[in-house]
Write a structure and sequence with these properties.
alpha+beta, Thrombin, subunit H, Nuclear Transport Factor 2, Chain: A, six-stranded antiparallel barrel, 17 strands, 35% strand
Length: 377
């Protein structure tokens, strides 16, 4: 009996020791392992980060449009932005009110005719449509209400000297007033300047990159601007957009405005197109830059070859361009460009300065880059 009793005690002790050893081993192992939690809400929070300012501006400019409303006696210039897949553009009613013909110019200097989809009588909001621009658009913030102190960006017409981006904050809310027959209710007051030509452009939240308002008016001294909250007008905008049938809208002819271009305006268009091309390269938006080339250049260079040509470019600093209109449809532009590139052999990037020469002209009513030549200095 005593032997059996001692054997049982020894066996129990052995089992306890083995169990304790296993527990200690598992504990030590768990300290070195990463615990993976499959939770989309947590992933969304941990992956959220503030977007790069220059990238937000570049992406937004693709969808910010210059608008020209023409009558027999005058031309009104303003801004707008694409907000859906139909090619519908939100702008201010005062930008297009009374216009006989409406044209738009995109960030890459393309020109298209537009037709009115809807226009407010008392609210300074309008929608125009350009079917050729159907596709990409800016995201409109329909739910979030911004607060005083939130950082914002006001974007204007992406064309020549009128291409403006101003930074600021929401400095006030619920501002009510009337200007030129339009009632502004619950408007945002912003410190970002709204200059002439900015009317109708988007007010963008700095952190999300989403549109929260439509820039409408500014004070004469330029210190205060006012923007219509997009939440307050989006329902009416969507009613107009859903009701309008493209084949029933009235569009003008694109060729009319191109044929009346003066040399100065043609040179400004060319210089903006080139600047936009170089910005796209620097931001590694090779697809966008590639689309700015003429059909002849596209036929000679594949996208892969084009991308590989510029893929090592890190930073591009260009000086003021010099342009000369060689005929009614063609511009020769020269500029000095310093390019910082990755070096495969050295740790530090290398810098090289070139004299670039661009030839731009119209192809199928749109301005394109026909040749690019670089001379190393």
């Amino acid at each position: 009996m005593n032997k059996n009793k001692y054997a049982a005690i020894i066996l129990s002790a052995a089992i306890l020791m083995i169990g304790f050893t296993v527990i200690v081993y598992l504990f030590q192992q768990s300290k070195h392992e990463n615990i993976v939690i499959s939770n989309p809400v947590i992933n969304k929070i941990t992956n959220t980060k503030e977007l790069d300012l220059k990238s937000i501006i570049h992406e937004a400019e693709k969808n910010v449009i210059q608008i020209e409303g023409q009558t027999k006696d005058s031309t009104t210039t303003g801004s707008g932005f694409l907000y859906n897949k139909k090619g519908d553009i939100i702008t201010n009613a005062h930008v297009i009110k009374g216009s006989d013909v409406i044209y738009v110019r995109t960030a890459d200097a393309k020109v298209y005719p537009a037709a009115v989809v809807g226009i407010g009588e008392e609210t300074d909001i309008a929608v125009i449509r350009v079917p050729q621009l159907a596709g990409e658009f800016l995201t409109v913030e329909k739910e979030k209400t911004p607060e005083v102190g939130d950082e914002v960006m006001a974007l204007g017409s992406p064309h020549g000297f009128q291409n403006t981006v101003t930074l600021g904050i929401i400095s006030g809310k619920e501002r009510d007033f009337a200007v030129d027959g339009f009632n502004y209710n619950n408007a945002f007051q912003i410190s970002a300047q709204i200059a002439e030509g900015n009317s109708g452009g988007p007010l963008i939240d700095r952190n999300s990159g989403n549109v929260i308002g439509v820039n409408s008016v500014g004070t004469k001294d330029g210190t205060i601007g006012f923007s219509i909250p997009i939440k307050d007008v989006i329902k009416q905008i969507e009613i107009w957009s859903n009701k309008a049938q493209t084949d029933e809208l009235d569009f003008a002819s694109t060729s009319d405005i191109i044929s009346t271009k003066d040399p100065k305006e043609l040179k400004q268009d060319a210089e903006y197109l080139i600047s936009y091309f170089l910005d796209s390269i620097e931001l590694r938006d090779y697809v966008n830059a590639y689309t700015l080339l003429s059909s002849e250049m596209l036929s000679k260079t594949s996208y892969a070859e084009f991308r590989d040509r510029y893929i090592d470019f890190i930073k591009i600093n260009d000086e003021k361009p010099k342009s000369m209109a060689t005929d009614s449809n063609q511009v020769k532009t020269t500029l000095k460009v310093t390019i910082e590139t990755r070096s495969k052999k050295e740790e530090k990037p290398s810098k090289t300065t070139y004299n670039y020469t661009f030839i731009t002209k119209y192809e199928n009513d749109q301005l394109k880059i026909f040749s690019i030549a670089a001379e190393k200095l």
